[in-house]
Amino acid sequence: MVRRTGLIDTAVEELRGRIETEQWPVGTRIPPEPALVDLLGVGRNTVREAVQSLVHAGLLERRQGSGTYVLSRSELAVTMGRQIADARQRDVVEVRRALEVEAARLAARRRSATDAAALLQRRDERAAAYHAGDLEAMVATDLDLHRAIVRATANPLLVTLYENLLDAIGENIRFNFVTDAHGHDAHDHLVEAIVAGDDGVAADETTRYLSALLGE
Fold first, then answer.
1. Which of 72, 103, 120 is the last residue before a domain boundary?
2. How far apart are alpha carbons 79 and 84 in whole angstroms?
3. Which of 49, 72, 95 marks a domain boundary?
4. Residue among 41, 79, 44 nearest 164 (CA)
5. Where is the HTH gntR-type domain (predicted)?
6. Which of 50, 137, 183, 189 is the most exposed place for a label (fewest CB within 10 A)?
7. pLDDT tens across 139-198, in order?
């Protein structure tokens, strides 16, 4: 019994690892049971129990007649999603300000040459989407820019927290574009400050535009 439980735990961690590293991205179907048996080197019952464990955790979803699909990269994202499903836009912006001001400060201090190049590219992609008037691309590129800033902090905990709030942040960004609260150059000074390594200006720019969204 102990050995069987250990096999299931090992299988769960293997499956979770492939989800967390996006070998199996959100929205995709995982391999069928026979392939998982070969992949993990365990029996069918162990595979079934491991998959069911991740279904209960909210990472996977079984769809009758179709297969099993990835719903989320982490249990934290599932939990956070439930908590913020009915959050007000103001609540989301306040949380963004709490995280993004420090993220901007740290990114300016720690960004690498690769990070700087990525930020400039994301800035240009955002501007192009704005000028094209493509709302979906505007939201996606704006979110990508903020994610790049957070990744440039080199703080894995901050990155994890931010990544698990992406749904709420993405909806907030969409709301801001629809209400015309964002311009094509809304983050240009922020990106320039981070690339230049000016942590004070980076933090001030982030505080400024998020506080403006709050009417402060």
1. 72
2. 9
3. 72
4. 79
5. 5-73
6. 183
7. 999 999 999 999 999 999 999 889 888 888 888 899 888 887 566 677 999 999 999 999
